[in-house]
Amino acid sequence: MNPNDEEKLNLDDDALNFDDAELNFDDLQIEQNSESPNLNISKKNINFFKNIPVTVTLEVSSATIPLGDLMNAAEGSVIELDKINGEPLDVKVNGTLLGHAEVVIINDKYGLRITQINDNSLDDLES
């Protein structure tokens, strides 16, 4: 920085003091930059997103236990979980709760039958 630049940066105190009542943004206009992408996604363009892979997880249950109990676990140990037998299981998509389901068997593989969709999850997609 040269000495002339330092002079330009020294503003008097009056230049920094202003009355916020004098500020008026009524006539403020924001111009659209033709180079910025249009972030509005039409329903027509939503097909692009339909091919993006997501991870679907069926969460049976969980439990919070002391680390010491887990360290003492061995083959044959039983850890009690917090869901009751017959309760719907949580279906998560990329870690976010989508709804609830039950386990089914399809051609010797596990599957899930969705029994409830979380409306809040679908509302988030529309906004």
From TrEMBL:
InterPro entries: FliN, FliN-like_C, FliN/MopA/SpaO, FliN_T3SS_HrcQb, SpoA-like_sf
Cell membrane listed as a keyword: yes
Annotated localization: Cell membrane; Bacterial flagellum basal body
Keyword terms: Bacterial flagellum, Cell membrane, Cell projection, Chemotaxis, Cilium, Flagellar rotation, Flagellum, Membrane
Membrane topology: Peripheral membrane protein
GO cellular component: bacterial-type flagellum basal body; plasma membrane
Function: FliN is one of three proteins (FliG, FliN, FliM) that form the rotor-mounted switch complex (C ring), located at the base of the basal body. This complex interacts with the CheY and CheZ chemotaxis proteins, in addition to contacting components of the motor that determine the direction of flagellar rotation.
NCBIfam families linked: fliN
Assigned protein family: Belongs to the FliN/MopA/SpaO family.
Protein name: Flagellar motor switch protein FliN
